[in-house]
Give the backbone structure.
Amino acid sequence: MFTDARNLPDHTTLEADLAIIGGGVAGITLARALAGNKTRVCVIESGGLEFDPQVQSLYEGENTGIDYSTTLTRMRFFGGSSNHWGGYCRPLDPIDFETRDWVPFSGWPFAFDELVPWYQPAAEIVQIAPGHFDDSRYWQQQTGEPIPEPATGRLRLQFVHFSPPTHFGSRYRDELKAAANIQVLLNANVTNITAAENGGSVKQLAIRTLNGLNQSVKARYYVLATGGLENARVLLLSNDVVKAGLGNHNDQVGRYFMEHPHLSGFADIVAGDLVRLPKIFRERVTVEGRPAQVAFNPAQAFLREQQLLNATFMVGVAGIYQAGTLAGSGDSNAQARRDMLLAARRFLSDEGKTTDPNTLGVWLGVGGSCEQAPNPDSRVSLSDQRDALELPRLKLDWRLTEQDRLSFYANLRSLALEFGALGIGRMRETVTDPRDWPQPVAGGSHHMGTTRMSNDPSRGVVDRNCKVHDVENLYVAGSSVFPTSGSANPTLTLVALTLRLAEHLKDRFR
Ligand SMILES: Cc1cc2nc3c(=O)[nH]c(=O)nc-3n(C[C@H](O)[C@H](O)[C@H](O)COP(=O)(O)OP(=O)(O)OC[C@H]3O[C@@H](n4cnc5c(N)ncnc54)[C@H](O)[C@@H]3O)c2cc1C
């Protein structure tokens, strides 16, 4: 059942066994996992079924760190940010879960293997082909093209899968409507998670609508699933009993905000041998109706040896060199690329091979996104400005460190060596000042770390089961619980984690 909170009488109280705050990727995944069950579930969603600028403006925030939009990088209506996500999917790597002595505050409370069983059902939910993320042989068979093994020992191939992309709101709406045990409350903003007097449990949720009504929801268990920035804000706003904010006894809520710095325009690759450049290296290839493309990642042994952070590079064709048009195009970098192409072709024993005699080579653009080390000073807090519900807006201070930047450049060097070693071509770095980041530094709309998971309450907000430390009936779902970010896009992993959480909650309701 879907209900519009704006049409309920003022001061209505709804009751459920489980209240899920937020009807985005995590909230919908969790509700679906409990559909048809006898547990009464209430999903409380701030927005309606369509985009509404007035609701979206509740996401406006103050920015004091690296330039970042808190409104363009998320969506506030049913389906959440899946209403305009890109669909890039890949699991985290095993090393991302490890305690790495060169990465401060690293280490998940469990190993990658614990999440493996959940990645398969998560893949179905985001509508990608299951598995084969690092199985070159499979892609070789499927595409009919040889896929070279990395030659330097520094890099490995990963195969990114692309979701259609699944818009969770429209795809799963009817299923939730049909489930007798699920109620979705739309246009309902949770303004406070009201704690019992000792702060050790949640009593109820305070809800306000934009037409001025106040409602509440009471449940046995509560799951906060409002996205990687808002999860921290809602806990900080819930400060009537615990003054620092619910779950924030140890000043951990909102800290360790991580993005995947997304970088471009820092390098050119000129490929002189197209025979050695499989299509899946440079564009999406569709197998059984589902697209995939290679990502170049540092080998885990190399990361350990060199004490680096993780990274992901992808390349795409930016231009084609045809016979007779090599001499330049007016582009200031054309001469440099031409020289690189000639050098690459001289280097290749038979002067370069192409399937088309007129095509002399291709120019590849490179995009990178990298892991950011957890940093307590990179954080979300509350602003002095207020939103339309009179609540303090979010304040974001995104910060990167020298370690993040040096790691990126070291991994970039590996990419250059690899393209040379494979005999595909030559890479040229175009960064003007390596003491700085390539500009611009953008985020990937990936919000992680602000309610991090740790078994130690002084080092994190939630425990290994995503339960808030010292609050017996409150859980958090989403990438805000990631203690480290790896370099893979987060949604597949947060769906897998939410399915794991659903199983844990089912046990509690048994
Ligand atoms: C442009 C863009 C591109 C992206 N591309 C990719 C990609 O290619 N691959 C990838 O893995 N990820 C991508 N992402 C990230 C992905 O969308 C998120 O990881 C995912 O949506 C997070 O799920 P979530 O449930 O935690 O949050 P959301 O999906 O954002 O859901 C949060 C929900 O909570 C609701 N809410 C917020 N506050 C309240 C409140 N106080 N009360 C009630 N409800 C509330 C919101 O309305 C929303 O529906 C992209 C995101 C964007 C914006």
Observations:
- The mean pLDDT is 93.
- The longest helix spans residues 402-421.
- The pocket of flavin-adenine dinucleotide is lined by residues 21-27, 44-47, 73-74, 76-77, 80-82, 84-88, 189-190, 225-228, 230, 234, 445-446, 478-479, 489-491, 494 (CB under 6 Å).
- Residues 1-56+79-126+166-256+446-510 form a domain with the FAD/NAD(P)-binding domain fold (CATH 3.50.50.60).
